[in-house]
Recover the amino acids of this structure.
């Protein structure tokens, strides 16, 4: 009797391992690859046959001719997708105040003539540390600097921002946002087409 139950248990284990450990994941992966190949492979963006990033993960930009992303608190380096986390520092923490003040100084140094209020998402990191988006206000704040460093009019850059702005999810969730990587790629493409910087 014991041997019969042992054999039944082992067969059940093997069957369930094959079904839930192999068949089901392969089926779901196959459906995802057929129905949503871009999303199933990480929403990767390619230019000239080379992967330049993902629409889902932020990247650092420091050149004044590009729009800058939100800060990242991931370790051991910024925008580390294997270590998604926030800084976990509160508003009275000196480390957070130092980070915010440092970013304000960087923004003012890069665009000393801009007197607009700095949007909060340009001086703080997101909860994940990987946010690929900035608010429409954060993009608008950076338009004069980017236009000046690209040799473009503010209207030209603003048009690219508007084209890259995504509305609220389902029309009600979240706020309008701009994917920094896709916007910067559009800027580079625009410059290549017009022979600009």
């Amino acid at each position: 009797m014991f041997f019969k139950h042992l054999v039944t248990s082992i067969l059940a284990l093997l069957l369930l391992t094959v079904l839930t450990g192999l068949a089901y994941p392969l089926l779901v992966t196959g459906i995802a690859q057929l129905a949503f190949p871009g999303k199933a492979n990480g929403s990767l963006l390619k230019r000239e046959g080379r992967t330049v990033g993902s629409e889902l993960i932020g990247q650092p930009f420091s050149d004044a001719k590009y729009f800058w992303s939100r800060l990242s608190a991931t370790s051991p380096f910024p925008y580390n997708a294997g270590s998604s986390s926030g800084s976990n520092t509160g508003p009275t923490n000196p480390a957070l105040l130092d980070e915010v003040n440092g970013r304000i100084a960087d923004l003012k140094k890069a665009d000393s003539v801009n007197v607009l209020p700095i949007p909060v998402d340009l001086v703080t990191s997101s909860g994940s540390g990987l946010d690929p988006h900035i608010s429409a206000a954060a993009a608008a704040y950076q338009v004069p600097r980017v236009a000046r460093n690209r040799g473009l009019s503010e209207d030209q850059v603003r048009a690219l921002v508007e084209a890259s702005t995504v509305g609220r999810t389902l029309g009600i969730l979240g706020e309008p946002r701009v994917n920094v990587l896709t916007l910067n790629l559009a800027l580079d493409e625009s410059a290549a087409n017009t022979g600009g910087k």
